Amino acid sequence: MKVKELAEIAGISVRTLHHYDEIGLLTPAQKNASGYRIYSEKDLSRLQQILFFRELDFPLKKIKEIMNRPDFDREEALLMHRKMLEEKRRRLDQMIRTIDRTIQNEKGEITMSDKEKFAGFDFSHNPYEQEARKRWGDKAVDESNHKIGRMSHEQQKALGEEFDRIYKDLAAIRHSSPDSEEAQVAIKVWYDYLNKIGHYSLDAFKGLGQMYVADERFTKNIDQYGEGLAVFMRDAMAVYADRNQK
């Protein structure tokens, strides 16, 4: 089938499929005489697998790395997806129950304890995600640890000082618009810094920014440089990632 047909079936944009082709994540089996992409049944199955990974917030670079491994097992991956999605559904069901009970509490129909008000909130690592990372590895983290471990004490100290300077610079402009030129220049410095000690794709960079706000431990540490910095960085990182996607 042609790209437009596949996009309609999968519920994604033609531009997304073009992007997957450009980065080598989903290259169609062939092209017709007019140069149009023609996708096979095998391509369709690969796209389904990609979208399962995306639903679980895996960055594109990580998906490509996993699926291109010689020992990649599609059935094993599908079983892993199922476990992870079941855990996600369990948490969402609990959150919905908490919302329903909170509405009743607001109406005076019931009285919730403080603990009940936070039932379902869990920012710890998903055990199935950890299992997946263990199975397929986490190259970015491994590379970062290895690179830092090889540095001298002086180099590590300089890296720490650079980290501190970047955060102070970002804190100084945290009240500006995240999509302003000033904010984008500053957040690029942070992106470049991270890629000195590891390899962060734009998707991973955006996901990291989301974690700054989703995980209160990150928020607390970052906001020591200035209240609201974590939210500002998340938004600026998202803008940077979206603007620079090829």
Automatic annotation (TrEMBL):
Keywords: Activator, DNA-binding, Transcription, Transcription regulation. SMART domains: HTH_MERR. It comes from the Bacteria. CDD domains: HTH_TipAL-Mta. The keyword DNA-binding applies. PROSITE patterns: HTH_MERR_2 (PS50937). The keyword Repeat does not apply. InterPro entries: DNA-bd_dom_put_sf, MerR-type_HTH_dom, MerR_fam, TipA-like_antibiotic-bd, TipAS_dom. It holds the Pfam family MerR_1. Gene3D superfamilies: 1.10.1660.10, Antibiotic binding domain of TipA-like multidrug resistance regulators (1.10.490.50). Residues 1-69 form the HTH merR-type domain. PANTHER family: HTH-TYPE TRANSCRIPTIONAL ACTIVATOR MTA, REDOX-CYCLING DRUG-SENSING TRANSCRIPTIONAL ACTIVATOR SOXR. This is MerR family transcriptional regulator.
